[in-house]
Amino acid sequence: MIEPELLYELIGYLGSALIAAAFLGACLGLTERRPRWFLMVNLVGATALCFPAYQSGTAAALAINGFWILVAFSGLVVAWRRGISPSPLNIALYAYSAAAIALLLADWIIHRNLSMAALGGIIAMLLFMTGYWGLARNLNSARALDTYLWTALAGNLLYIPLLIRDGNLPILALQVACTAIAIGRLSHIHASRYRQRQSAHNGA
């Protein structure tokens, strides 16, 4: 018989894998054709991450998980009501406020204080989700793609130390995976640009 703690952690890893797959699709520009599927994968993954977040009961885990669910669910509601793909930017603007409040309240309930870690978590989440939803909009501009990837990467690098301190392995695994994906995509972009410059130089 599997212990509940281990089961919750395994479900959390499944959620991490789903959201990481969605992030990879966003990096590769695959979200425009299937926006609802993209949001559904995020919602299922975030729901699965509820289990380890609830188990650990830390501010960072609860806040990031609530943020995933809010953004994915609100996006699906907009998509089905209007019959069109939602605007990630509009969704994110509403979700930012809710995420900031949720993080501060969660930290206050658990630790009875508004710590610097909570404020750092807000900044990190804003950076990461700005980059994430920029990728989800499937912008064609190479410069915009670069900017959003760097923004997501910066948010992750700020947030990972907080997750290490909390010891929430499934959510930590998700953010590490997204960091690796962002670095890989940025490396590919810059390598392609370098080859193009070399080809142009040799042609001249």
From TrEMBL:
Pfam families: CBU_0592 (PF26604). Keywords: Membrane, Transmembrane, Transmembrane helix. The chain crosses the membrane at residues 6-30, 37-54, 60-79, 91-110, 116-135, 147-164, 170-187. InterPro entries: CBU_0592-like. The keyword Transmembrane applies. It comes from the Bacteria. Residues 8-82 form the CBU-0592-like domain. This is CBU-0592-like domain-containing protein. The lineage of its organism: Bacteria, Pseudomonadati, Pseudomonadota, Gammaproteobacteria, Pseudomonadales.
